[in-house]
Amino acid sequence: MEITAKTIIADVLKACPSSVEVFDKFNMGCMSCMGVANESIEKGSRMHGLDPDEVVAELVKFVADCKS
To answer: What residues contact 35, with CB distance under 8 A and at least 6 apart?
Structure first.
């Protein structure tokens, strides 16, 4: 799966459910957020005061080794 700042958070979680660990690391709480279904990583990151590129980089590394 290609992950960019425009990727929808729910799509990442669907492809690799254990990626919730990355979102938790950044205190994003994506599993309990109603916006997760249509919110991009960029939007979610910015809402939490985070650099989207940093979140994407972590997700890319994690998903490459995903063990759902």
So the answer is: 9, 43, 44
pLDDT of residue 30: 63
Closest to 63 (Cα-Cα) out of 6, 20, 31:
20
- What are the backbone angles phi and psi of residue 8, rounded to the nearest 5°? -75, 135
Q: Which amino acid is at 42?
A: E
**In 3D, which of 45, 16, 42, 40 has the Cα closest to residue 29?**
45
Query: 10 Å Cβ neighbour count for 29?
Result: 13
The pTM score is 0.87
